[in-house]
Amino acid sequence: MCLAVPGKVVEITGEGELRMGKVDFSGVQRQACLAYVPEVQIGDYVLVHVGSPSPASTSRRRKRRLQALAEIDALEEAEGEG
After folding, report:
1. Is residue 55 helix, strand or coil?
2. In order along the chain (82 residues), what is the average pLDDT of each group of 10 residues?
3. Cα gap 60→32, rounded to integer Å
């Protein structure tokens, strides 16, 4: 199974095939290649899988994905404490 993680584009550098972006994943920021999503702008959300983003579908879906990831994180923390 593949997992694409939603994140917010906070910075864009370069152009064309060299277009890169800094993507924020709930406080953790990583670089991602934006060459395949030329329409993405700062403030947009993308789904990142193995460093390559695709546009996030809808606001409602993005919120559900972020909530599910937060719930998984909370469960993992609870298991680590037990």
Report:
1. strand
2. 81 89 92 89 86 60 74 79 60
3. 23
